[in-house]
Write a structure and sequence with these properties.
This protein is an alpha+beta fold and 135 residues long. The chain contains five helices and four strands. The protein is 33% helix and 21% strand. It has a four-stranded mixed beta sheet.
Length: 135
């Protein structure tokens, strides 16, 4: 199941997530990418981040406790800041800034892979890759 840049727009997200997770067969995979910009928007109000109509802001704090809330049979394979979706050629300054903002969280994830709550939240987006345990 892939839920990429969509769940943050759903008004009642919990039943939708439960339905998506319920579609997984044992051994099945779940991937989600969600923009996570609230910490950045609080500090930088002059930039239009281009994410209208977000109802939810889902970062590491949300995704790393996901199996505990939605299905204890899910194992987190990867939980990390999302890739930078800009290229140097299209917007050099924003691309460099995005990489710099994600770097502390990437280091924190590498040093403490099992940590559920990160100290550095200025990442712009989060992605998680889970697998449903085989019974």
């Amino acid at each position: 199941v892939i839920a990429s840049a969509s769940l943050e727009h759903v008004q009642h997200v919990e039943p939708v997530i439960k339905k998506l997770v319920g579609l997984l067969n044992p051994g099945g995979f779940f991937f989600s990418f969600t923009p996570y910009i609230m910490p950045i928007k609080k500090w930088v109000t002059s930039i239009d981040f281009g994410y209208p109509a977000h109802i939810h802001d889902m970062g590491a704090d949300f995704w790393n406790k996901f199996p505990d809330i939605f299905d204890e049979n899910l194992t987190i394979l990867k939980s990390r800041p999302s890739i930078v979706q800009l290229t140097f050629k299209t917007n050099a300054l924003r691309c460099i800034l995005a990489h710099l903002l994600k770097l502390p969280a990437k280091i924190e994830c590498a040093l403490f892979p099992k940590k559920k709550f990160l100290l550095w939240s200025f990442v712009g987006g989060w992605e998680i890759f889970l697998r449903k345990k085989r019974i």
